[in-house]
Amino acid sequence: MGFNFRGLAFKQSMMILAAITVVFGLIFGIMSYKTQDMLNKMTVENGEETSRANVNYIDKLFNAGKLVGDDVATTLGKRKMTKAELDTFLLQSLTNARNLVPQIVAVVLAYEPGMGPETPKGEFMRLARYVDNEIKLITGGHYDDKEWYYSTRDGKTSRWQEPFIGEFVPEPIAVYTVPIFQKNKNGEEVLAGVLAIDMSIDFLKDEISSIPVSNSGYAIITSAKNVAVAYPKSIAQGKRNREIVVKEIRGNSQVDFDRQTQDSSGLFLGTVAGGEESAIYYTTIKANNWTFMVVWPIEKYLKDQSSMRKLFLVLAIGGYIIILIIILLISFRVAKPLKELAIAARKLGRGNFNVTIPQITGRDEISEFAGAFSNMLTELKDHIERQKDMKRIERELDLARNIQLSMLPGSEHDENSDDDRHELAPFLLPAKEVGGDFYDFFKIDNDHLCVVIGDVSGKGVAAALFMMVARIILRTTTKNLKSIVDAFNRTNFALAKRNKLNMFVTVWAGIIDLRTGHIDFASAGHNPPAVRHSDGSVEFIKSKAGLVMAAMEETIYKPQTYNLKKGDTLFLYTDGVTEATNSNNVLFGDNRLLATLKMGGERSTADTCTLVKKEIDNFVQDAPQFDDITMLAIKFNGIDEPVWERYEKTIDVADDNKGELKSFVEGILTPMDGAKKVQMQDAWDRYEKIVDVIPENQDILTAFVEGILAPMEGSLKSQMQINIAIDEIYSNIVKFSGATKVTLIVEVRKATLTARLTFIDNGKPYDPIKQADPDVTLPAEEREIGGLGIFIVKKTMDSVCYRRNGENNELAITKTL
């Protein structure tokens, strides 16, 4: 198979290959971009999910410690106690604190000189400490030079101190300090001393080490001053806490990470303890202003992106090669035999009746054309040798006419395209022995019927040969490409490329979907078809006629559509119908054609064509026929029953095979559970819980929902978002509605992993959705208080809606798990 660089096959292949190259390039570029974007989003989401659960846990723990300190300081500020009373109070306070927060290891009380139970000039510091599974009282020494004391005393505000190893508690601790105010004799509040709650932070190291992080990552916690509090042993390597510093990479330099200048959470590029570059996602622990960080080494992070790009590239190259091979095979299969037949046709046109017609094997249209062409040549040679006069030529032309007509399908049975969904009838009457009109119909597949009508310029043998070539090329390309527009473009290029006689052909062709009546069609300068509707009305299809075929190689035809209704008849015709002329040079015309079709009533398609021919004859009477008359009528019957799917199984008649047919049928029918399947997919499971409106019941509702959703195995992110939504909505009901009862209805659709939560309370009318969204672009200190919780709910849920139902508020949220 040699290459002809000027041939249709090569040019066709190169054009398609160029288009595919552009498409594959775009796909690779888009997929690379999407992959990188997806990995970035996955990194952020992974960081969010890892951070959220752990930060919430740590937040709650330190908030609890803060509440303990505030309560004890408040009690101490209300009344003065003796030394014995203070000892008892401190022991009881530590016992109560550890019952709430086991990580609290000491409660420390330090008075200003003269404010404690000692002598007016003395100092007083006592602490209750948990050690060796018991609580002991310890008397302190000098403390006014300790940062935890003087920072709270001078600032007169409570605060979390930087972590340190205490003098009396020899382990890493986080200290929450609270100033104690008492009233003097004049009723003025004065600073009496400082209370400190010591919390052990050893547990954070175990917590950090147990957190699984993908891509060789790890977690780390830093204090407000960017000092490492908890970190994996793998990054310590003999370093002290203050040497494990997180730095941010900015350009070519590294600076200490300063969260005070950042948002409350985010992603940045940096290093930990001078190690390798890493992608770091951070989240603020609001209770003590510490930072929780998730760290991924950048080398592994980029390696995943690179592997995805390589995979896409390999798939693209493989697909590119396969498509190239297929294109070349199809192109040469279509073009090579047509080229050989065209060479033979040119020789025959020059009078060489000894030309050899290529022998093309197969049963497709090209082999059919080659066989018919060979038969026509043989018959013409025999008749020319036997007859030298005009009568002999007329007989040969008559034979050519028969061959021409035999090339066209006489009935749908010949084409194996007949079925109950449509009815079809053709009609062709050449003006001379052979003509240039043609029609065609064939099925592309079981549900799509292609109908064609065309008119070649000129008359006689040349028009007939051109007609046959045009029909075969159009038929072949339509079956291969399954697109009318692509077939028109390809056929036009093939015809125009070697159109030495400057002939052309008008064509109208459409592909009818026999299930719906939808038609995809194109027109190359041909008359628009007419339609007789089932209600008796008639019209021409609005059809934009493109340039005739074979005029210009680069002509591009536009796709057009039309929808037939059940009972409609599509009527295709050539200009020999509407331009039939009587003795007064009056044309039969479009209006007479429409009137004739309307008069046709419920006639069959064959009778419709006969009626139109009869009306033409009555109109022209004795005037000669100057042009070919060709018609093709198609009635769309539709179908009243669903389309059947067909399966086939062939087995040998033997005892060993008796179970194969049963298994074959069961394999087809088992997935078809019909209405029951649809019903189960649409079913919702419903659960209900009623509680009193008190803050403590929020955890009951959260546990109730988690118990329902856990078996559905949704994502951790969705569960966390639902828990946050329950928190915000229930808090709003407690604070603003004045309700006494809340009913929570949980509905789940397991088929689609969807949950719907409806909160019903008997409080006053209150629609939280109408509240304006907060401006989250402003710094936290500049925002107005309120609205952030409901804003988060609206952003994270699939839908949020409210209604006032009688005396109740109903707020419903929906989330896909």
What does this structure look like?
- By secondary structure, the chain is an alpha+beta fold.
- Helices cover about 40% and strands about 25% of the residues.
- It is built from 18 helices and 29 strands.
- A hairpin with a 5-residue loop joins strand 8 (about 220) and strand 9.
- Helix 5 packs antiparallel against helix 9 and helix 6 runs antiparallel to helix 7 (about 390-405).
Brief summary:
With 817 residues, the protein is an alpha+beta fold. Strands 1, 2, 3, 4, 5, 6 and 7 form a seven-stranded antiparallel beta sheet that branches. A seven-stranded antiparallel beta sheet has the order 9-8-14-13-12-10-11.
Name its key features.
817 residues, 7-stranded antiparallel sheet, elongated, alpha+beta
Secondary structure: elements and pairs:
Blueprint: H1 8-78, H2 83-100, E1 104-111, E2 124-131, E3 134-139, H3 147-155, E4 159-160, E5 164-165, E6 172-183, E7 189-200, H4 202-209, E8 218-222, E9 228-230, E10 246-250, E11 253-256, E12 265-272, E13 278-285, E14 290-297, H5 298-349, H6 365-386, H7 390-407, H8 412-415, E15 422-429, E16 437-445, E17 448-456, H9 460-481, H10 484-497, E18 505-513, E19 518-524, E20 530-532, E21 538-540, E22 560-563, E23 569-573, H11 575-578, H12 589-599, H13 605-620, E24 629-636, H14 658-669, H15 674-682, E25 685-692, H16 698-709, H17 716-737, E26 741-749, E27 754-761, H18 788-796, E28 799-805, E29 808-816
Antiparallel strand pairs: 1-2, 1-7, 2-3, 4-6, 5-6, 6-7, 8-9, 8-14, 10-11, 10-12, 12-13, 13-14, 15-24, 16-17, 17-18, 18-19, 19-22, 20-21, 20-23, 23-24, 25-26, 26-27, 27-29, 28-29
